[in-house]
From TrEMBL:
PANTHER family registered for this protein in UniProt: BIS(5'-ADENOSYL)-TRIPHOSPHATASE, ECTONUCLEOTIDE PYROPHOSPHATASE/PHOSPHODIESTERASE
Pfam family, one: Phosphodiest
Residue ranges of the TM segments: none
Name under which the protein is recorded: Alkaline phosphatase family protein
Biological source species: Nocardioides hwasunensis
Length: 378
């Protein structure tokens, strides 16, 4: 029997309209370039240059709730669009959708961790694995690269440590890379890149996400970090030429998950039965099952988790459109069974993912708090 979500529990990804995969194609049109007729409902004003500033972890609900700590970004909310992350709502998936203009089912980075087909191991898409070639894992040309091929000056401004990583190659290849670790460096590098016309400059800040994971989005530390990134955005806008448009987006939101809302699969009898490998992350699990074990795994996990999560087979999740159209090479990377958490629930594994147990803020599922992202134009 198909599982039914509680009313309002999930927000569907707005692929082809206002998802992260639609941002760069929309910028391209505003620059006068058509990326293969990519349809999107996001309209941006024409300009000779654009800067896309991605603030990791700044969901639309969080910005609305704590706008008093972000006066500049809040001033852009009126008349702005609200977009969505893809599924799952996690950084590697989202950054690749932004940089490629593709849905997760096409670009293939389908979670924080996912199975390497034909093996019994996971690929961590943030930390990567030297044995996995990012050009084979994500073989499609990026939207950044297609824009550069069309004559647009495309630049990525990001931390030096991220240069040449598997995720950067998969998601941002085709753009010039400027290493910048501090706010002043990021602003200076972005302003220099945006002086070209036509140009697209992508700049990334990860500190808000890190703070949310460590302290939670209800913490004083998170509010202070939000105020700092708000000041960074305002300083960036002031430093840019007046003709350059600034678009501020996020890759996902975040929820705080208290201990009493967490289920440890290694502490509940039967939850590991029939499962060869557990992937994904605490709010969105990929379960890779033994032969003919899918139905039993679905039944067990639905019984244990009850109203705390939606448990679906791979086919049902694809049928819901969670990943967009799924390329055949991507299919085996998806779990045979997928678990998307409701509310503030989380599915932990103290054996396989002990580090996740130390985190306060989490993301990955389809709740509005995680899926809805701001698209602010300044």
């Amino acid at each position: 029997m198909a599982e039914v979500d509680p009313p309002g529990a999930f927000t569907a990804p707005a692929y082809g309209d206002r998802s992260l995969a639609d941002v760069v194609p929309s910028v391209a049109r505003a620059l006068g370039v058509d990326l293969d007729g990519h349809p999107t409902g996001l309209e941006l004003p024409p300009a000779p240059s654009y800067v896309v500033f991605l603030i990791d972890g700044m969901g639309a609900a969080l910005l609305a709730r704590y706008g008093h700590s972000a006066p500049y970004l809040s001033s852009l909310l009126e008349g702005s669009a609200t977009g969505t992350a893809g599924v799952p709502s996690t950084t590697a998936t989202s950054l690749t959708s932004l940089g490629t203009g593709l849905t997760p089912g096409a670009h293939g980075l389908v979670g924080f961790t996912a199975r390497v087909p034909g093996t019994d191991r996971l690929l961590n898409h943030l930390w990567w694995d030297q044995d996995v070639d990012p050009l084979e894992w994500q073989p499609h040309p990026t939207a950044f690269g297609r824009l550069a091929h069309a004559g647009v000056h495309v630049t990525s401004v990001n931390k030096r440590d991220f240069a040449g990583t598997g995720l950067t190659v998969a998601s941002q290849r085709g753009s010039a890379y400027v290493g910048a670790d501090r706010v002043g460096e990021r602003i200076a590098g972005t302003v220099a890149a945006a002086s070209h016309s036509p140009s697209l400059t992508y700049v990334y800040d990860s500190d808000l996400d890190w703070t949310g994971h460590k302290f939670g989005v209800a913490s004083t530390q998170w509010l202070q970090q939000l105020a700092m990134v708000d000041a960074e955005a305002e300083q960036l806008r002031e430093a840019l030429p007046s003709a350059t448009r600034l678009v501020v987006v996020a890759d996902h939101g975040m929820v705080d998950s208290p201990r009493e809302s967490r289920v440890d699969v290694d502490s509940v009898d039967g939850m590991r039965e029939g499962i060869s490998l557990i992937g994904g992350e605490a709010r969105f699990r990929h379960l890779y099952c033994a032969a003919r074990a899918v139905d039993d795994v679905v039944a067990t996990w639905r019984e244990v988790l009850g109203t705390h999560a939606t448990v679906l087979t791979r086919e049902d999740a694809i049928g819901r459109g969670w990943f967009g159209d799924v390329h055949p090479s991507v299919l085996p990377r998806l779990g045979d069974v997928m678990v998307a958490c409701h509310g503030d629930a989380a599915v932990m594994s103290s054996v396989d993912f002990a580090y996740e147990g130390t985190l306060v803020g989490l993301h990955g599922s389809l709740t509005p708090a995680e899926m809805l992202i701001p698209i602010l134009v300044g």
